[in-house]
Amino acid sequence: VMTYYNPFDGTGHPYEGPVDLTLLGADGTVNCAAAFGNPANMGLNDLITCFGAGYGAQVVDVYPLFDGNALALTHIAKGDIHANNDGYAAIAAAFVAAAQ
């Protein structure tokens, strides 16, 4: 399973902070112990990581790949949150690395 990246990361867009909060929770990290100990620390990527690992899934954390690189790895400058070819290549490389 894959975590989500912040398509606004490094853009200075007003959504950058709220999306980080949504994905990482108030503590700004993926941490199962902290997330389940304090609901404010639970973001979507915490849920994906903690439940995925709990069910034996291989978790591929792509969030760090896009950290500060959204303009280079997505189409966000055109208003599209999806990865571009370089972004998808980075995601694919992360999946290959996780499978080895």
What is the compact description of this entry?
This protein is mainly alpha-helical and 100 residues long. 45% of the residues lie in helices and 6% in strands.
Structural notes for this entry:
- With 100 residues, the chain is mostly helical.
- Helix content is 45%, strand content 6%.
- It has 5 helices and 2 strands, in the order ααααββα.
- The chain has helices at residues 16-24, 32-37, 44-54, 70-73, 85-99, and strands spanning 74-75, 80-83.
- Strands 1-2 form a two-stranded antiparallel ribbon.
- The longest helix has 15 residues, at 85-99.
- It is flat and about 40 Å long.
Topology summary:
Elements: H1 16-24, H2 32-37, H3 44-54, H4 70-73, E1 74-75, E2 80-83, H5 85-99
Antiparallel strand pairs: 1-2
Which properties best describe this structure?
mainly alpha, two-stranded antiparallel ribbon
The low-pLDDT segments are none
Sketch the major β-sheet: 2 strands, antiparallel
Query: How much helical structure, as a percent, in the residues?
Result: 40-55%
Shape: flat
Task: Write down how many β-strands occur, each being a DSSP E stretch of 2 or more residues.
Answer: 2
Number of helices: 5
Radius of gyration from the CA trace? 14 Å
Please report the distance between the alpha carbons of the first and last residues: 15 Å
- Provide the structure class: mainly alpha
* Amount of beta strand: 5-15%
